From TrEMBL:
SUPFAM superfamilies: Pectin lyase-like. Belongs to the glycosyl hydrolase 28 family. GO terms for biological process: carbohydrate metabolic process. It comes from the Eukaryota. Keywords: Disulfide bond, Glycoprotein, Glycosidase, Hydrolase. InterPro entries: Glyco_hydro_28 (IPR000743), Pectin_lyas_fold (IPR012334), Pectin_lyase_fold/virulence (IPR011050). Pfam families: Glyco_hydro_28 (PF00295). This is Polygalacturonase. GO terms for molecular function: polygalacturonase activity; rhamnogalacturonan alpha-L-rhamnopyranosyl-(1->4)-alpha-D-galactopyranosyluronide lyase activity.
Amino acid sequence: MTLPMFPLNTDGLDIAGKDILVERLNITNFDDAVTVKASTQKNSYATCSSNIVVRDCTINFGVGMTIGSITPSDDYSCVDGVQFLNHEFHHPLKAIYIKTNPGTTTSMEPGSGGRIANVLYQ
């Protein structure tokens, strides 16, 4: 996947769900190369983005391999079990990026909020 020079707010690939494999991409951009987004309790397929493997990619420029942005939510934003493996970076703005947003949920009830867990960069 190759994008034109200096486009802003143009993620290469956004992922949310479960049991996902992404491999052997060649991405040139100036925003997140691969981003794992949160799934929530409202998602009927996956209440948590989980069991995701992204491997063997070449990233040119870009913000690299990203989690988020994860914001506290009454629907419980969740990313759990993500592996970023064996990537090649050329002139990255950032290679590794985990974006969290501070804040509180409207209800502040148990089960609201969010979680990022079991993330491996190797």
